[in-house]
Amino acid sequence: MPDAAQIRPLTALRFFAAFWVVLYHYWPKLDVGFTPTIAAKGYLGVEAFFTLSGFILCHVYVRGFGEGRFRYGDFLWNRLARVYPLHLATLVGVGAMAVVATMAGLSVDPNILAWKALPANLLLVHAWGFAPVSGWNHASWSISAEWFAYLTFPAFALAAWRLRARPVSAVLGALALIAVLYPAFQALAGFPLTEATIQWGALRIVPCFAYGCALHALWRSGRVPDRLSGYGAAFLGVATLAAVRFSLPDPVIVMLFGALIFMLASLARAGFEFAGQSVFTYLGEISYSTYMICIPWKILAINAAARLLNIEGEKLPLLIWVLIVAALVPLSAISYHLIERPCREAMKSFAARWKQRRLAFAGAA
């Protein structure tokens, strides 16, 4: 059975999910006069990330949890090392840009420098209803939602472990949660759960994360033959694209996307190299940077281009727009290698040294 690093199609899928979100945020700045449904539905890339997160975390940790080898403190520190340094860097970066722009006499959205929202952003609880406005690096609301899922992961892991012998029931239960929660939330809140950010963002991750955990239980059970995965992935890929193209309800697209994740993981286990080439794997590895810098880069690049080209309304020509979007790839690589990866490794090394010192102290005592 492949370890987390060997489910290469899922690593590649992270990149495509990130660029789906990028398309959603950047398309309104393109001077074409229409919005295709693939761009309009780009916010669902977040749901893809949430479902992938549940699947991968169960893949890495659920067996250790069930066998009593899971260490909650180590788990949280590793997850914090994964997300927090880049979150903090982009938050500071957006703040610095806003301060410089204000000093230069440029108009800045007051929500960007929302000091009342800063504590919640720093504590990663700004998707829990504690932030009065959506400020700083808005995209980080989903990282706050992820942090909620990390904190509550033992509950998800317990359910996944206890249902490991009944994975079909686990998947059906997760599908039922999606089918009930989404319309119920919209009826009560007046807007779709898939559009929740700083208000109810923590709830938004729950059905997707649970779905990912359930799909992993089914995948690990081997009850669906891997030989069907190629046909299944092709069918579900087309079905997901068709569902987006014809703007089917969000819960349907979420369900299809989760099933696609399952089939791609089965492809990897069967030994197929679909989307497993090094270039796709690398793009998946830098996808978190892509996601986190997309809003700051959008603010900086599109405003600069509009001023240099004297464009009102910030509707950019196709070539300029493509160049700005394409620049996200090298910028993501720079962010990954200069901030994300070294900071993550530094935090993990610090934890390892601290544990060694603690053990040495205990031995000496």
Give the mean pLDDT.
90
Instruction: Indicate the structural class.
Output: mainly alpha
Radius of gyration: 21 Å
| Overall form | globular
Give the end-to-end Cα distance, rounded to a whole number of Å. Answer: 42 Å
Structure notes:
The protein has one domain (4-354). By secondary structure, the protein is mostly helical. The protein has 15 helices and no strands.
Summarize the topology.
Elements: H1 8-26, H2 37-40, H3 45-66, H4 72-103, H5 118-122, H6 141-151, H7 153-162, H8 167-189, H9 201-221, H10 229-245, H11 250-269, H12 278-285, H13 287-308, H14 318-326, H15 328-364
Considering the chains and any ligands shown, give keywords for the structure.
365 residues, mainly alpha, 71% helix, 0% strand, globular, disordered N terminus
Summarize the structure.
The protein has 365 residues and is mainly alpha-helical. It contains 15 helices and no strands.
